[in-house]
Each structure stands twice: as structure tokens, then as C-alpha cells.
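Task 17 of the worksheet. Students: predict the tertiary structure of the chain below and write it out as C-alpha cells. Keep your answer in the requested format; marks are given for formatting as well as content.
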Amino acid sequence: MQTEWRSQLSRQWRKEASAYGFIAPYAVLFAIFIAIPVLAAFLLSFTFFDSIQPPQFNGLLNYIVLLTQDDIFMRYVLPNTIQFAVLVGPGGYVLAFLLAWMLAQLPRTPRTIFALILYSPSMTGGVAMAVVWQTLFSGDQNGYLNSFLLSLNLIQAPIQWLQSPEYLMTIMIIVTLWSSMGVGFLAMLAGMLDINPELYEAGALDGVSSRWQEIIYITIPSMKPQMLFGAVMAIVGAFQAGTIGVALSGSNPTPQYAGQLIVNHIEDYGFLRYEMGYAAAVSVVLLLMVLLFNRLANRLFRED
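Model answer:
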């Protein structure tokens, strides 16, 4: 009986060996670049680690300090991150859907051209993108926006747009929305183009008489996987953003912490103060926030 079981197991293994062989490289990459770093960050979050001395276990102290003593995190970083994520995440998501829907109505050639134009900002590196917007919002009279406003006598002196806490977050949101048409946007466009036109014809026979009704009753239900993918990408992109504020203002922390996000807080403690254990605790909190919102997106767009 045991010999027969081993023989059956051996045949099953030979049958599936090729499948495991194809999966193995991706499993190794996943382990090296995702699973192991996440586990290491989780373990380091319970230690004091300055990158020089061995980690020293301190229990929940990092989390207690984060929630009760880190005034910068509670007053600036967390509210900034929530405000940024709420505006950029859903805003970019809705904008991507609307633009994808409009492009889906166009013939193939102009659709391809406009899709490439909209997608290209997302391929631009953060530093290169910041240079373009720094020129627009430069704080001297040569900055395009200041020059335009001065020529109309709307302002009397140049405004330090990128150094002013009053304007920095707004500019960060504008720049991020401008560059948010990434793979989520392409997935939505592909999902819309894949919808069977006969569904719209059947809907018209059933009383669907407007474009709005088509979107609600046909388009969105027919592309829930693409909608979910776009939502996940928007959530992750909104929460992992951080370089844009530093690149625009030229400093970390940003002026008066006006554009300081969780990612900036992690970089500040991890690579400027070398408090790796505390930075790991902040990164775990960020991971939990992303997982929570991804869970909500899954519940919203799950297949019935």
C-alpha cells in the first residue's frame, strides 16, 4: 500500500514538475523582494536598531512612541497622508475611469494616440517630473505661474509656491493626479474595449436609454476585475507617494511638514536619523493601512 502511494506521488510530481519549474523563478523573486523584506520590517519594528549595533528587542515601545509621543506623526504626517490619499486615490481613480470611457468612444488611431499621451506622464521619473513642475511653480519672477500673475497685476511680488505650507499640498495633489494615468488606467481602457457590444444592444431593448445608465448597469458590472485592479493600484500609489513633496520642495522634511507623508517619515527616521526599528514600525502601520483599503476595494468590486 505504501509503495503504491509513493508511486502515485512520484507520478503526480513528475506531472506537475514543469508547472513548479515555471513558478519557481517568480516564487524566488517574491520571497527575496517582498516576503523577506516585509517579515524583516515586522521583526525590526520590535527592536531598537541603528544600523551599526545589533538590534535590541524593545517590545511594543516603537508603536507606543508612534501613537503617543510622535507629535510630528500625529499632527502632520498622518493627517497629510489621509488627506492626500483620499483626494488622490479616489480622484485619480474616477479621473482614470472617465478618461478611459471617453477614449473607448474614439476610433482606434486617435484612441491609441491619446492613450499614449495620457499614459506617458506616469512613465516619467519623479525627479524629472519635479523639474518640469518646479519651472512652472518657481518662486522667482521667472517662474511661469508667477510671471503670468505678475503680468496681469494679480500679485505684487512673486509667491514662493513650493516653500509655502499654504500651497505645497495642493500642488502635490495636482502633480500626482497629472501623473496618475498608469497601468490602472490602461486596464480600465482594455476592460471597456473588451465588453461585448451586444450587451449594450440588449440593454437598449430592456430600457437602458442613456449613457449614464449604460455605465451603471452594463459597463461597470462587466469590468469588475479591471475596476478592482485599478482601485488597488490607485490605493497603493496614493499611500506610497512621498518623493513628490520632497522633490518639489527640495527638502526632507518638507517646509513646516506641510507635505510630509508617511513615506517621508519612514525615510526621515530610517535614512537620516538611522532609527531603523522605529522606521520599520511606521512602515508596518503604512502596510496595515494599505491592506485595510485594499480589503475595502475587494469587497466593493468582488464578483457576486
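Marker's comment: DSSP finds 14 helices and two strands in the chain. The chain has one domain: 70-301.
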